[in-house]
Predict the structure.
Amino acid sequence: AQSVSQHNHHVILSEAASLELGCNYSYGGTVNLFWYVQYPGQHLQLLLKYFSGDPLVKGIKGFEAEFIKSKFSFNLRKPSVQWSDTAEYFCAVNVGLGYGGATNKLIFGTGTLLAVQP
Amino acid sequence: SQTIHQWPATLVQPVGSPLSLECTVEGTSNPNLYWYRQAAGRGLQLLFYSVGIGQISSEVPQNLSASRPQDRQFILSSKKLLLSDSGFYLCAWSPAGGWDEQYFGPGTRLTVT
């Protein structure tokens, strides 16, 4: 069965530190990859996504992620975190459901809670 | 622009009572619709998805059911709630016919007592 692993469950950093959150998935077919973020009290929202092309994708708020197909990984990075980056981060993989046509099923990791100390 | 609404925002229900959570989407037609449950430390689990009116697929066996009576309305129901149904329920939509991102609603916090 398809799965997504986020190895860091809780990360605490000081402002200006660099961030890297790991994400590995298990699925041998074509995938689309996503990082979602949930700020305290807010909706889950998209941070960035990879469909094809350049494996290094840039998202909002200075985040980027690199797709390494051989490692089944899609790690999230930010060179210098801010207090406002405190949130929960979810990696997700999209595999087709094939229900009467193209649709999508998102498989989420268990999330990483990031706390940035000022 | 598209918006997604969920209500109620919070709900406290006794064991054995019925449940109805509603989700509506505005600004798009024929969306794919999804119900997820989010549990602390366990990520989001897909419960149901729908690609059209009256078309519902269940991802996991459970005490809940879903219905889609209108194109942009998705309802999560239960006839008799269990304690284990407590959780945070998220509705999401995505454009039909593609593998694009999903857009999430604000969620409903359900506590079964």
Chain A touches chain B at residues 4, 6, 9, 32, 34, 36, 43-46, 49, 51, 90, 92, 94, 96-97, 99-111 (CB under 8 Å). The longest strand of chain A covers residues 87-95. Residues 3-117 of chain A form a domain with the Immunoglobulin-like fold (CATH 2.60.40.10). The CA atoms of residues 15 and 82 of chain A lie 5 Å apart.
